[in-house]
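Support reply, case 0932

Customer input (verbatim):
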Amino acid sequence: MKRYHPILVTLHWLLAVLVIGGLVMGGQVLAQTPNTDPAKLFSLKMHMSIGIVILVLMVVRLVIRFATQKPPQADIGNELLNKGAHMAHYLLYAVVIAMSASGLAIANAAGLPAIVFGGSGEALPADFNDIAPRAAHGILSLVLKLLIVGHVLAALYHQFLRKDSLFSRVWYGERGS
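Our regenerated output:
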């Protein structure tokens, strides 16, 4: 087995785009837009929708990952680094799921589903910082950004320095035996 299942490959890249888009939307658009700005409702609707899609796709990805055959773990000749890489992948899953869960908790605590999707006519809260899960959401976003940078750097290391074709495992092609 040389490659991951094509559904896992598709989910990997789709989730990469959605997660990065959600991080950019949250950190660059939502954080910079005052809650009194009417455009914030549309941005929140998009951010919340993307977050829910990410959560669902991440759970689906986990289920498929455990249910399908996968290539053997990469071995770079250092047991500690091998285990660290393995754990880093599961940490990525955990942080993305926790990020989505904290976003749902913020939304529920602030009454956002009714405001953003239900058209209740209520105004957004003056600030989200008083909502307890907001701090966790911010910390998780920083941890996730660091994990993503580490993930990308590790992929580049394998592709261009080790030249071990590890990157091909998360691309389409013959899966081999």
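We compared this against your earlier run and they match. Two observations from our side: The CA atoms of residues 26 and 47 lie 7 Å apart. The longest helix spans residues 79-110. Please reopen the case if you see a mismatch on your end.
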